[in-house]
Amino acid sequence: MINLSFEDIEAAALQLSPAERTRLAWFLLLSLEQDDVELDDSILASWVEEAERRGDAYDRGEMGAINFDESIARARARIAKRKTE
Q: Which residues lie closer than 8 Å to 7 by C-beta, 6 or more apart?
């Protein structure tokens, strides 16, 4: 396994297109079910609906994407800010 920090993984995930993030979120939620963690169907449905809404907004040009370096910088700034709060 590649030894990446959660922050690096989070920042990289934020660089994915909305459609790719939807697929990743779905995959991660399914992996929880495989670990015998029960997911409330309404919560799962809400996440899927939100992911689809964001993917559609991206497809319509209502939201954009940023490059990887900027995403990493923003994520690290948010994390640093949380640590000081």
A: 75, 76, 79
67 to 1, 21, 60, 74: CA distances (angstroms): 25, 15, 19, 11
CA torsion angle for 85, 15, 71, 2 (degrees, to 10)? Answer: 80
Q: In this structure, what token pair is assigned to residue 28?
A: 């991660």
> Tens of pLDDT along the chain (85 residues)?
568 888 888 888 989 888 888 888 888 877 776 555 555 677 778 888 888 888 889 889 998 877 888 888 888 888 888 878 7
Look-up: residue for tokens 């990887």? Answer: 68
pTM: predicted TM-score of the whole model, two decimal places: 0.41
